[in-house]
Amino acid sequence: MPRRRTSSSSSSTGNSTGNSSAPRNRTPQPVRIRRRSFGDFVKAFFAFVALLVLVVGVPGALAMFIGWPLPNGAPSLDWLQNEITVTTFLHILTVIVWLAWAQFTACVLVEVKAAMSGVGVPGRVPGAGASQLLARQLVAALLLVGATAASLTPGLSQLGHSIEGNQKPSVAAAQQTPGLFAQQQEQAAGTAAALAEQASHAAAQADADGTAKHADTKYYRIQPPEGRHHDSLWEIAQRHLGDGRRYKEIYQLNKDRVQPDGSKLSEASLIRPGWIMEMPGDAHGGELVEMPDAAAPDGAHASNASQQVQQQIHDYAKSGDHAQGSGGEQAQGSGGEGAAHVSVPSQRPAGDAGGGQQHAGSTQGSSSSDSFGLPEALLGAPLLAAGLLLALGRRRRQSLWQSAFGAVGGRRGMEPPTPTGDAADAQDALLVGADPEGVRLLDRSLRGLSAQLAAESRALPTVYAAWLTNGDLHLQLAQPAGKPPAPWQLGQDQTFWMLSRTDGERYEDVDTAAPYPGLVSLGTMDDSRLLLNLESVPGIVSLSGREADRAAVFASVAAELATNGWSDRMTITLVGFGEDLTPLAPNRLRHLDGIDDLIETMEAETRQRRGALGAAGHHSVLTGRTGPAQHTRWAPHLVLLAATPSAEDAVKLAELASGAGHLGIGYLVGTETGELPGAAWEMEITGEGKLLAPLLGLELDAQMLPSAQQRAVVDLFVEADPERDPQGPTTTPPFLVDISEQGRPAVYARLVGPYEIIGLDTPDGERSALLHEALALLLLHREGVHPRVLSSALWPRGVTEDVRDSLLDRLRAWLGADPDGTPRLTADSTGRLVLAKSVVSDLDVLRSLYHEATQGKGVDSRAVRGRLLTDALVLVRGPLLADRPEGRYRWLTHEIIDAQLPLLVADIGLALSAFHLEKNRAEKAIEALNAALNSAPGDERLWNELLRATHATGDTARLQSVAADLINRSGARGLPPRTEALLDELLPTWRNGVAAVG
C-alpha cells in the first residue's frame, strides 16, 4: 500500500550490456521562458539592495565607524586586570557582528553556488538555520530575473554533459504483483540491462506528430525497491532537479497519463516500479532518458532493448497531451491484470481456512436493542480490546501487590473500585470484544517465523502489513523474499506469506524478539482485518479528515500500540492529542508539547540510531532482531502527530522520515488538506467512519476510539493506578453477607477449592457445565454481568442470540425464586444480570468474615476477631475452582481473582498469626501461617512471619529447617532483600549453611 516513497538511498543500478558508443540524440527542448512581471523586478531589486547592505555595507560600516576590535598585539596578564569600559563592550559586540556577517556571507555563497550550478541541494552552513533561510530567499529573488538562460531554460544546461553521464544504467521495469500496495516486483533475469538501453531505444516508432513534439523530452523509469529503499517523486526531484519540493512539477507532467501497466498517476503520492515519468527539461543526472530522434537509423537505438520496452515508452510519449480518451478509461475500469488495484488476500492456505475465530463479529451480530449502550468502537476492535484488557489486569494486579505490603487491615483493601457509568460500559465492551486467543496466535506465529528464519540464517523480510482473515494470517512483504519456512506458504504471489489458523496453533512460545512490533490495526474490509506496519513505512503515513475523526483514529492506534501483545518494548511519542493516554502505558507513551520539541527530539533519536546500527554492523533493525544479536531487541520508536504541521515543519519531518524505515522509526501525521511532503502513504478518514486510500483501492471500516470511549478507558486505568491515593480509605467488598445464623442462604456455592452447589438440583447433564460456569461468573461479579459479557465468556467464538437467550431462560429456571416469589436472577436498570442476596458463595462469606474481623465487630472484641478469622481460614480448601474442566472458564484470564484470593488468604493468615502471637501462642500462629501458605505459597509476608513465629518458639533447629526450606524454594532468584535482613537478625549463621550447601 505504499503511496509516495521517501527512502533516502540512491536508486538501484546495473551494468549496461548495450554498446556505449551507439549514437544518441541530445537535441534540446525548445526554450520556454516565463515572461517576467514588474513585481519580479521589484523583488529582485530589493533583494539586490539587501544583499549589498548585508554583505558589503555591514563590514564597511564596521571598518569605518568601529575599526579593528581585536588587540593589535598579544595580551599580557595585566590586560585581565584592566577596567571594563564601554569601548570594551563595543569591541565584544563588534566581534559578534563580524562572526554573524561571516556566517551569513558563507550562506550567500553556498546558495549562489547551488542556484548557478543547478545540481543538488544547497549544503548546510553549521548553526545557520535562519541566516541560511534568509540568504536562500534573497538569492532566489535576485536570480529570478538575473540568472542566465543556461541555468533557467529547460534542456540547455544539459548540453555540456557527456554522453556517458546520461547513460548510467538503472533497473528495468518489473512485473506487477497484485494485492495490497499493488507493487510491481523486479524480474530476476535481464532487468538490469532493460532500462539502461532506454537512452538509445525509446519510442523509435513514434508517429510524426508525437516525434516532433517529444523528440527532445527526458524520461525516468521508476526503480524497483532495493532493500528498504523505495523510489519516490520527492527523491527523484531531489536527485534530478536539485530540490525535492519540485516533485509537483513531475506530477503535473504525468498526471492521469496511462502507464505501461494500464493504471494512472492520479495523485502525487503513489508511484510504482516500472512506471515512466516525463521530466522537466532542466532535469539532469545519469539515470534520465532522452527521447531519441525518429530520423536516427534503426541500428542507432536497437541495441539489446526489447520491443516491449520500446513500445512502452513510445505509447507513453504519445500520451503527452494527456488526451487519454476511452482507452485510458477502459484501462482504469477494466480491473484486469495490471490494474492498480489493492485487494484483500484472495488465496488461503490449505487446512482449516474458514475455522478462524469470529469473536468480535459474533458480538456485533446482536441487534442494536440488545447493546444496552455498549460502545461499538470497542466491540469491533478485538485486538485493541484484548490489549487494553490485558494491560488493565496487569495494572490492577500491580495495585494489589503494592497494597499487600501495607499494614494489615489499614490499607485500601483487596477490591479495586467498581466502574460505573461510561467506564462500566467500556469495561463490558472490552470483555465482549476482546480476542485474546487471536492476539496469542498472532504473537506466537510471528515469533515462530522469526525463530525459524534465524535458524536458517535468513533475514527477516520487510513486512508492510498483515491481514487477519477468518483466523488465517497473511503477511504482505515489501518485495519477494523466497520460499517461507514451513508451515508458512506462498500466497497469491511472491509477496504474500500465509499461515493457516490450524498451523499457527502448533506454534509454542519461543524466546525471541518480537519481529514486527509496529503492526497496528487500521480497520476491516469484509471479513479481513488490516494491520499496517508503521515501523516499515518508507516515509510518512498521512491521515486527513475532520479533526475529531482523525483524533479517534490516532487514539485507537496509540492505545493498541501501547498495549498490544505482539511486541516487547516500544516508545510511542504523541503530539497534539486532546486526551492524555499516558495512564495506559506510562513506560511506553510520552507526550510532547509541540512540533518543535518533536523535531528536536527525533533529530537526536535519528542520529543516535544511525550510529548504533553502524556500530553494531546492522543494515536495519530487522537484522538486529534475529540471530545472535537479537538480545539487542531494537525496539521501535513510533511518532503520532495529530496536529497539522506547518509547511516548513512538514519538510523537516519528511527529511527525518525519508531514511527512518530501516531505523525502526515510523511517523503517522495528521493533515487538514491531504497534501503532505514526504508522505509515502496517504489516507483519509470520513465522517461515516470509512478509512479511504483511493489510489490503493482500500476502503476500510476504520478502527476508531472516539473521545467519549477514550475518556472511559483512561478512567479505568486511572482508577487502577497503584500510586493513586495509596493512603486512602479501605474499600468494602462489593457484596457482604449476613454471617449470623439468621443469614443462612437459599443457594450456597463453594468456589474456593472444588466446585460444589448446595440448595439446587443437578441440571441436565448436557447443559450442566454451561449452567455451572454461568453461575460462577455471576457469583464473582455481584455488581452485575452484561448479557453480552456472559455470552462471550461462555462462547468465546461467538453465539447467536436465540442460543444465548435460551441459556438465560434455563439459568433462571434452575435458580428458581425466593419464598416471596422474587426471581433469583434478575436484570437491573442497565440491563445487567444480578443474583439475589439469597444466592451466595464461600468467597462472599470469606470476604465478609475478614471484613467483619478487621473493620467490623472484631475491631472492638478480641474474641470475636479470633473466631471470625479462624472461621475464614477454615473455608479455604484450595485454589479457585480447583476441579474446573480443561478448556472452560477461559474468561478467568481477564479476572484478577487469581491474584485477589491468595492475597486475601495471606491477609487472613497474617491477621490470625498476629492474634495468637499477642498471647505468645507461637504454635497456633505457626499453624495459621502454614494453612495460609497452602493457598499462597509465594507470599513473602507469610514466610517472614513464619520465621518470626518459629523464632518465638526458641527452637533453633526448627528455625534452621524453615530457613533451609525457604532458601530451597527461592531457587536461583535468591531470597528477597527483606527476608535476608530478617534472617540476619533471627539466625545470623544462616549464610554459613547456604555456603556449605553450595
Automatic annotation (TrEMBL):
This protein's record includes keyword DNA-binding? yes
- The UniProt record lists the Bacterial transcriptional activator domain at 841-987
Task: Point to the regions of Polar residues compositional bias.
Answer: 303-313
**Disordered: region residues:** 1-30, 282-373
Write down the superkingdom of origin. Bacteria
Instruction: Provide a Gene Ontology MF annotation, just one.
Output: DNA binding
Residue ranges annotated as transmembrane are 44-68, 88-112, 133-152
Compositionally biased tracts (Gly residues): 325-338
Which of UniProt's keywords are assigned here? DNA-binding, Membrane, Transmembrane, Transmembrane helix, Two-component regulatory system
Pfam families registered for this protein in UniProt: BTAD
Residue stretches of biased makeup (Low complexity): 7-21, 359-373
Put simply, this protein is called DNA-binding SARP family transcriptional activator
Q: Organism, per UniProt?
A: Streptomyces pseudovenezuelae
